């Protein structure tokens, strides 16, 4: 059954029933061996679909992103397990292909939430992390368009949203870090400029998880030439790349909005210069969007 095509009320019933059954059988279920943790609007859905099509990968049940380690941690680990396949399904995959099955999810907010990576390190001490990065100016513009389209931002002008960002995010990161039960709508949906400071978030992630367990992908490479990038990710995750290959498609893309104001583009490009320079240490080269 393709749940995505169901009417919203029926979809909610199916999700509730699945989670209820999943909780009852949580001790028989897998936990992820890897996560896609961001960045938002960097192609995470496209990479998720490609990896979910791998023959030895069992994706999360019903949801691409479970959002356990950011906004639902209070639900507990049994609730989280309820979102993943049964170990018996993994055993069948292993019997067929001769390698262990893996499961995963993709929640881009994990990269940004101040408590998420520490929670991941505690609950999934051996999990690997995949992070996608993209031209941060384009990423911010795309996110704003996305949030407006979803009704999560009423400020339709991108320049105005950037100007409002410091006030909207004032002390939100500190409050999220200090209070496990605090939720910030603005931090999740209005951090357009801040989310392009990739190296800052990767540094925190490395402190908790270990740099050797983090793999960074340039989205521009993945979109232009997906097969070698896919093979690199598979090698990092220990997935055989010589089995059936998935179709490589872009998902969750929105039609291009009007061009960004040139002056604002120049200002953002300059703002990200030190952050992009710090990212070189992760990529091993100058980011694609800084070349030429």
TrEMBL record:
<feature type="domain" description="Sulfotransferase">
    <location>
        <begin position="33"/>
        <end position="242"/>
    </location>
</feature>
<protein>
    <submittedName>
        <fullName>Sulfotransferase domain-containing protein</fullName>
    </submittedName>
</protein>
<dbReference type="InterPro" id="IPR000863">
    <property type="entry name" value="Sulfotransferase_dom"/>
</dbReference>
<keyword id="KW-0808">Transferase</keyword>
<keyword id="KW-0325">Glycoprotein</keyword>
<dbReference type="InterPro" id="IPR037359">
    <property type="entry name" value="NST/OST"/>
</dbReference>
<dbReference type="InterPro" id="IPR027417">
    <property type="entry name" value="P-loop_NTPase"/>
</dbReference>
<dbReference type="GO" id="GO:0008146">
    <property type="term" value="F:sulfotransferase activity"/>
</dbReference>
<dbReference type="Pfam" id="PF00685">
    <property type="entry name" value="Sulfotransfer_1"/>
</dbReference>
């Amino acid at each position: 059954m393709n749940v995505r095509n169901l009417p919203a009320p029926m979809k909610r019933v199916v999700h509730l029933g699945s989670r209820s059954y999943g909780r009852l059988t949580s001790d028989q279920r897998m936990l992820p061996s890897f996560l896609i943790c961001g960045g938002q609007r960097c192609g995470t859905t496209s990479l998720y679909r490609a990896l979910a099509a791998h023959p030895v990968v069992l994706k999360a049940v019903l949801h691409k992103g479970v959002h356990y380690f950011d906004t639902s941690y209070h639900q507990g680990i049994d609730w989280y397990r309820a979102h993943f396949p049964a170990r018996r399904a993994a055993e069948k995959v292993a019997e067929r292909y001769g390698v262990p099955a893996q499961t995963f999810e993709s929640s881009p907010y994990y990269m940004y939430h101040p408590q998420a990576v520490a929670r991941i390190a505690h609950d999934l001490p051996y999990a690997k992390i995949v992070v996608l990065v993209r031209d941060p100016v384009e990423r911010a513009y795309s996110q704003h368009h996305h949030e407006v389209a979803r009704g999560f931002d009423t400020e339709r002008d991108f320049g105005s949203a950037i100007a409002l960002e410091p006030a909207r995010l004032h002390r939100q990161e500190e409050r999220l870090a200090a209070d496990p039960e605090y939720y910030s709508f603005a931090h999740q949906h209005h951090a357009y400029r801040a989310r392009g400071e990739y190296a800052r978030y990767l540094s925190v992630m490395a402190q908790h998880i270990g740099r050797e367990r983090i793999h960074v992908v340039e989205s521009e490479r993945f979109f232009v030439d997906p097969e070698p990038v896919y093979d690199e990710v598979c090698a990092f995750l220990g997935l055989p790349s010589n089995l059936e290959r998935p179709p490589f498609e872009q998902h969750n893309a929105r039609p291009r909005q009007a061009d960004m104001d040139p002056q604002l583009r120049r200002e953002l490009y300059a703002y990200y210069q030190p952050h992009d320079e710090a990212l070189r240490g992760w990529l091993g080269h100058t980011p694609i969007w800084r070349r030429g």
